[in-house]
Amino acid sequence: MAEFEDNRPLKVEVKGLTKRFGDLLVLDDLNFNIRKGEFVCVVGPTGCGKTTFLNCLTRIHMPSEGDLYIDGVPADPRKHNISFVFQEPSSLPWMTVEDNIAYGLKIKKLPQAEIDRRVNRILDLMGLQEVRKVYPGELSVSAEQRVIIGRSFAMEPDLLLMDEPYGQMDVKVRFYLEDEVIRLWRELGSTVVFITHNIEEAVYVAERVIILSNKPAHIKEELKIDLPHPRNIADPKFIEYRNYITDKIKWW
Amino acid sequence: MGSKQKERVHAILYWGLPVLAVILIVVAWVLFSAQHPELMPDPVSVWKRLIKTFVKPIGNTNLFGHAWASLSRVLLALLIAWAFGIFFGILIGWNRTARAIFGSIFEVIRPIPPIAWIPIMIMWFGIGELPKILLVFIGTFVPLVINTSAGISMVDKINISVGKVFGGSNMQILKDIVIPTALPSIFAGIRTSVSSGWTTVLAAEMLAAQRGLGSLVTKGWQGSDMALVLVAVITIAIIGSLLSFLLNKLEKVVCPWNSNK
After folding, report:
1. What's the pTM?
2. Which residues pair with A73 in a beta bridge?
3. Do B17 and B133 lie in a common domain?
4. Which of A107, A146, B20, B51 lies 20 to 30 Å from B85, alpha-carbon distance?
């Protein structure tokens, strides 16, 4: 597939990113850029190092070689407004739903009125108003995940990283939340890096898909998904994209 | 049987059984004391002895005075132990250097029962208030440190990652994530400290004190006044269970997310 033009400024630059755990090479010299306001999906076979890649972006892990730059400076969660949706349920069990959503905003020391405004908006958007005073332990897994996603959107982040956020959801909730992510992405103009092993999901949401190889992961291909939103999963072009990516990450 | 009916039967059962257990004990007491009055005074004589503690005070104070003497020693020692114990527990759980320095000391001190310190305390500090409070402090400080540090070091990594991703400083992560995670465990330490503090103070008072429920036990024993011993023992039990009831209530206030489970 052909190269494509994009005039948006660069947001994230990944240069020679390599990560080893002891002798185990997980990420092997990754190089790519993400533009401001872009929605990028990273797909690859299970266990290929997708999560390690995200953890390097947020500095939970430090890269062994190479680095990541956000707006031209090395990524730093204290300098950059980075939001992260973890794969595992990561709500804070001792905080109510509304306090969970407000958590990141309080760390950033936003004015209380602004925190209230954003929390209310997220509660409305995510249909969580009724459970705002409830503790996450009393919610279903999918409702808890909505809290976590809400918490990230509340940050109105420069960069929103999502690590297979819908892995634990049923299909109906997943499609609903995928549409939500697209809508919020367009409203807020956030740059989103969305990791998934679900190829249909990647084709459904992404502007561009980065296909990773088996471990040690390198970039097999970058693919622009040239379809308007909302996308139709039964569209022949959609299916063509889906089959193309499936062929690329086949390891059997 | 419908599930609602079943629930009602269960509710009655779980309310009724504790009451039945208490009644059984009292009945056994009455029967036993009727057969062996020299070994065990009956409930009526214990009640009379209780009234007498108000009419004819022992050590210049009535039963309430003795109870308060014991309680005030425990509470004072507990307050100090909570402050230092939780602080030390957090330090040891959070900071590897602190754990390396103090961790093994606590592991060595932990198995020593607090009453084993009594001779040393009396030799060093005499038989005043200080050694008793110190003893209770020792008995309560150690479980607090152990529980707190265990709670702190068991913090879920993902929760710390959340704090880091949102750009929280180490102090913010400690305050917002680590300590709340450890709260149930800290509370378990507080619970242990209260019960162990209560037993320690009574043991200390039994050996050397003018006032306190422990001293009543000793006085009754030495004067062959078994009714007085029982008055003291029952008071000890009632205060002990009241303390544990209060702690349950307090836990629901301090860790509401935990008690809903």
Report:
1. 0.74
2. A70
3. no
4. A107
Contacts of A60 in chain B (CB under 8 A): 161, 164-165
Whether A138 and chain B come into contact, CB under 8 Å, resolves to: yes
Work out how many domains chain B is built from and give that number.
2
Question: Quick one: B46 and B36 in the same domain?
Answer: no
- Would you tell me how many other CB atoms lie within 10 Å of the CB of residue A166? 24
Q: Specify the higher pLDDT residue, A61 or B238.
A: B238
Please state, in angstroms and rounded to a whole number, the distance separating the CA atoms of residues B156 and A90.
10
Interchain pair A103, B161: CB under 8 A: no
Check if A104 contacts B (Cβ < 8 Å).
yes
For chain A, the domains span: 6-77+191-252
Contacts of B165 in chain A (CB under 8 A): 58, 60, 77, 82-84
Same domain, B33 and B52: no
Residues B31 and B47 grouped into a single domain = no
The domain A6-77+191-252 belongs to what CATH superfamily? P-loop containing nucleotide triphosphate hydrolases (3.40.50.300)
Boundaries of domain holding B128: 41-259
Which phi and psi (to 5°) does residue A160 adopt?
-110, 120
Domain shared by B88 and B3, yes or no: no
Contact status of A165 with chain B (Cβ, < 8 Å): no
Query: Whose CA is closest to A41, among A147, A233, A176, A198?
Result: A198
Q: Decide if B148 contacts B182 (C-beta within 8 A).
A: yes
Cα dihedral sign for A140, A141, A146, A147?
positive
Q: Are residues B21 and B47 in the same domain?
A: no
Q: Which residues of B touch A (CB under 8 A)?
A: 158-159, 161-168, 172, 176-177, 180-181, 183, 255-258, 260-261
> For a pLDDT cut of 90, what percent of chain B falls above it?
18
Q: Give the mean model confidence (pLDDT) for residues A32-44.
A: 90
Residue B255 has pLDDT above 90, yes or no: no
Residue A88 Cα, gap to closest chain B Cα (Å):
8
Within this chain, do residues B19 and B93 fall inside the same structural domain, yes or no?
no
The stretch A69-90 carries a mean pLDDT of 83
What's the whole-number average pLDDT of chain B? Answer: 87
What is the bridge-based pairing of β-strands A219-224 and A208-212?
antiparallel
Given a cut of 90, whether residue B24 has pLDDT beyond it is: yes
Q: Rounded CA gap, A41 and A56, in Å?
A: 16
